[in-house]
Amino acid sequence: MTGIATRNMEAPHETRQFHGHGHLDVVTLGDFTLGRAVFEPGWRWSNDVKPLAGTDSCQTAHSGICLSGHMTVRMDDGSEAQMGPGDVVTIAPGHDAWVDGDEECVFLDTGIAAYAMPA
């Protein structure tokens, strides 16, 4: 890689709408992709992204930081974890997730090149 590439998240290359509760703003610079997901209250992967992905659970590996709000992630094996503001997380493929409470959850994610794309 040479030089510098920049793009402001307020002017993303792409915005992917979730089925009902939120969206994902995507910026791609070379081989690096960053997403800012806005998960609105009521968002749940199995309701809002599963129809786009066409898989039984989310098969994307995520790594990022929660900026605001709260979310619960349940792995296919039944284990669960919660995240909130300031939490840095990695999430393996094979999970469902949902927003906790009535505040939107905003999450910066590096694992989204193919996330919320039609199967």
| The CATH class | Mainly Beta
Strand arrangement within the widest β-sheet reads 1-2-3-9-4-7
**Which overall shape is indicated by the principal axes computed on the Cα atoms?**
globular
Strand content: 35-45%
Low-pLDDT ranges: none
Looking at the overall shape, the CATH architecture is Sandwich
Number of domains: 1
Provide the residue-averaged pLDDT. 95
Largest sheet: 6 strands, antiparallel
- Report Rg: 14 Å
Task: Please provide a brief summary of the model.
With 119 residues, this protein is mainly beta. It has two helices and nine strands; from the N terminus they run E-E-E-H-H-E-E-E-E-E-E.
Any overview of this molecule?
With about 120 residues, the chain is mainly beta. The protein has one domain (about 15-110): Jelly Rolls. Helix content is about 5%, strand content about 45%. The chain has two helices and nine strands. Strands 1-2-3-9-4-7 form a six-stranded antiparallel β-sheet, with no helix packed on it. A three-stranded antiparallel β-sheet has the order 6-5-8, with no helix packed on it. The longest helix is centred in the middle third of the chain and has 4 residues, at about 45-50. The radius of gyration is 14 Å and the shape is globular. This is Cupin.
